[in-house]
Amino acid sequence: MPATSPRDPAALLPLKPDVFWILAVLARGELHGYGILQEAERLSDGLVQLRPGPLYRRLGRLLDDGLVEEVDERPVAAEGHDERRRYYRITAFGAQVARAETERMAHALAMARQAGLGPGRGR
């Protein structure tokens, strides 16, 4: 039986935007660092552009905090595959934290819409 974390995901909120994007991308599947950069940019239609230096520092912190883990198994050799790449995946605790942040942002968005701050509404 996997160990559960006694930590409260809400204690880590709010997440920095780049941390949220890293977790959201990894929630879709395992990736190496450069793949995380590319996928965040693709999924955000270019609005999110993570940079390599900060990304790898964040990944190190996320590893230390137990939100992501390095994947021991490497994908089968494929086009563009480099065995030196490190692959990452979100942990169960990381997914809990990302869900808590998503709920926090959804609540903030609902409140903003009720205040008339939705798209296309100016005051």
Task: Report what the structure shows.
The chain has 123 residues and is mainly alpha-helical. It has one domain (14-74, 81-114): Arc Repressor Mutant, subunit A, CATH 1.10.10.10. It has 4 helices and 3 strands. It has a 3-stranded antiparallel β-sheet with strand order 1-3-2. Helix 1 (17-27) crosses helix 2 and helix 1 crosses helix 4. It is globular, with a radius of gyration of 17 Å. The termini are far apart. The model has no long low-confidence stretch (mean pLDDT 89).
In total, how many domains does the architecture comprise?
1
> From the helix content, strand content and strand pairing, which structural class follows?
mainly alpha
Helix coverage percent: 40-55%
CATH C-level category: Mainly Alpha
Q: Span from first to last CA?
A: 54 Å
Q: Give a quick account of the main beta sheet: strands, pairing sense, barrel closure.
A: 3 strands, antiparallel
Question: How many alpha or pi helices?
Answer: 4
CATH architect. name: Orthogonal Bundle
Low-confidence stretches: none
- As a whole number of angstroms, the C-alpha radius of gyration is 17 Å
Which shape, going by the Cα principal axes? globular
Fourth-tier CATH superfamily name: Winged helix-like DNA-binding domain superfamily/Winged helix DNA-binding domain
Cross-sheet strand order for the largest sheet: 1-3-2
Give me the strand/helix succession.
HEHHEEH
What is the averaged pLDDT score?
A: 89
Approximate strand percentage: 5-15%
- What is the tally of beta strands? 3
Per the CATH scheme, the topology name is Arc Repressor Mutant, subunit A
